[in-house]
Amino acid sequence: MSTGSVRYELLKICPHTGARRGRLHTPHGTVETPFFMPVGTQGSVKTVGSEDVEALGFQQVLSNTYHLSLRPGSKLVEQLGGLHHFMSWNGAILTDSGGYQVMSLSDSRTIDDTGVKFKSHLDGSVQFLSPERSIQIQGELGVDISMSLDECPPYPCTREEAAEAMRRTHLWAPRNLAARREGQAVFGIVQGGVHMDLRTESAEFIASLPFDGIAIGGVSVGEPSEMQYPVVTHTAKLLPQDKARYLMGVGHPKDILHAVAAGIDMFDCVLPTRMARHHALYTLDGRVNALGKRWADHDGPFDEASVFPQTQRYSAAYIRHLFKAGEPLGARLATLHNLAFYARLMAEIREAITQETWPQLLERYARA
Amino acid sequence: MSTGSVRYELLKICPHTGARRGRLHTPHGTVETPFFMPVGTQGSVKTVGSEDVEALGFQQVLSNTYHLSLRPGSKLVEQLGGLHHFMSWNGAILTDSGGYQVMSLSDSRTIDDTGVKFKSHLDGSVQFLSPERSIQIQGELGVDISMSLDECPPYPCTREEAAEAMRRTHLWAPRNLAARREGQAVFGIVQGGVHMDLRTESAEFIASLPFDGIAIGGVSVGEPSEMQYPVVTHTAKLLPQDKARYLMGVGHPKDILHAVAAGIDMFDCVLPTRMARHHALYTLDGRVNALGKRWADHDGPFDEASVFPQTQRYSAAYIRHLFKAGEPLGARLATLHNLAFYARLMAEIREAITQETWPQLLERYARA
């Protein structure tokens, strides 16, 4: 049994798939599931403000324990009223634990069962992250959902490395829970790499603990979708129906469609925002390069299905010009466009589950 | 007599000063004067969209003939429906003639009475700008107000250089007018450097031609305000009451206050937008550095008098964090803050003329 302030409510299961339509009740509002969280690593979804994220229809964002603890510091954020107030975001916030960034961004890290010692990528100062410390930082940030510190092995890795990362993840799981503040909601994370027996063991163990939701980690770390899809399908089935299921770091529209069908409720990914800054725009016909000559005199939007007023008012020709001219507004409009694409994808996913029109949805996004 | 589609309407003269309250009627709406134009050099006010400029309350923006003619090209803009449609801006647009940018940005320029030959700063291609060509480009862009091609001497320059630039400006003035499309409104430009007799000669000559408005050029090219203020005061007095008066490239809030009192109606300047990108924010207590330690835990706005909702919702501590963290949202929020400061300054200037409270206004902005 969980003790946190977050609760998942199942509304309906898609008759065509295992897709779930539900609600996540958080201290900062109810979030309709399945949903996607824009990534605001440093307390800001790159190039857009909280009013934009609201206008796009998102109800929850993701931010980053590692980055915020180094700068501006979680104590300062707490003193300033918490991360919601700091970034003026009225919706829900989930933070990752910092473990993934410690392993990918910091220097000279050493990991053992106590935690990870590492050097800050900002100033080289020596830092220590443990399950207790990660949960404490996330408590200071005051977020709605804290993620457990786990060990996420890279892909490819040996079975032994995947098993060892799982062992440590399981060792740390209860320590994450024990470090909670009163009411602090904490999600557990299933590891096990691409090995189905390890995934089974991990899912069963994590599901046995009183987490407020369960994430599938170690997917979207470089493996091809032929490896990712079976892991997601296999693992999702093992998770309890009464808790939210979060697939970390995923992904492409087609990956999200697959994972929702497998029973996943929550997603985050840097793709829509990062791709936008590299002038790659999502459309129903696939991702297009805004610099392409075909857009030079195109007076309509990149995607005829675009519905967001702030991007609808600008033509592809104008956005291409902004990128060509090095105007910062280009990245912003492209970010709004891509986030609007993801927001609409998730809204249509929810609608397709409710209306039982999943096959039509797959057809609509077949080229996306 | 002018033939263009722009008309100035004088409403009231301030009893304390020569300040004028009026209206500029343009094909894209009526603009309350005195007003400030945000600078959108390449068809975009840096970091903000047209919906933001609208929300800030601006009714007219400035864009740049030189930049737009090189990229994306005025023919393409015309084909796409004109600059208003291209940048999705429903208010009025004034373009500068390109002369200033040719002299400051291009390579290997040669100027004679026919025009300026120069190499594009983008690709080194040889280009030619003449009064006829500049007015043609601005006609293709479809702007509300086209500026005459003039010669703007740098500061400092000799009296002979100032006189020669004025001579060429006067030679070109009728050629600018002769090149107009039907209904194209063109403003003339007074030159003459810091020499009052030349300014008198130039103001009288330019005022004798059928321009739709008159600008004072060659101010704000590096001269100190001790030189700028007398030129503005002297020249503004010589201009006809029935045409709008535009002081090009000005300026600091105190410069605007001075110039309005001298009878100027229109301003443009890169300061609020450029300073914002260098984390310098306008407040009633002067321009402040957002990186300063004093803001690290400041949960309020930089300026207590701030009125714009999109920037009011963010604290100085947050905006400082964004700059420190290299987040692109920092420049955007700072730009919105500074433009909101300028929009409010102009609104309060108009109000002070109407309400006859100019002395109180000067007191309010004494430290700005």
Secondary-structure arrangement, i.e. CATH architecture of the largest domain in chain A: Alpha-Beta Barrel
Oligomer: homodimer
What is the spatial order of strands in the main beta sheet of chain A?
4-14-13-12-11-10-6-5
Strand content of chain A: 15-25%
End-to-end C-alpha gap of chain A:
40 Å
Radius of gyration of chain A, Cα only, in angstroms? Answer: 20 Å
Give the overall shape of chain A: globular
Mean pLDDT of chain A: 95
What are the key terms here?
TIM Barrel; 368 residues; three-stranded antiparallel sheet; globular; alpha/beta; homodimer; 16 strands; 15 helices
Write the layout of secondary structure elements.
Two copies of one chain form a homodimer.
Chain A lengths: L6 E7 L6 E7 L2 E5 L1 E3 L12 H6 L4 E5 H6 L3 H6 L3 H5 L4 E5 L2 H7 L1 E6 L2 E5 L6 E4 L1 H11 L3 E3 L11 H20 L6 E6 L5 H12 L5 E4 L8 H13 L6 E4 L5 H9 L4 E3 L2 H7 L2 E4 L2 E4 L19 H4 L3 H9 L3 H28 L2 H7 L4
Parallel strand pairs in A: 4-14, 5-6, 6-10, 10-11, 11-12, 12-13, 13-14
Antiparallel strand pairs in A: 1-2, 2-3, 7-8, 8-9, 15-16
Helix pairs in contact in A: 6-7, 7-8, 11-14, 13-14, 14-15
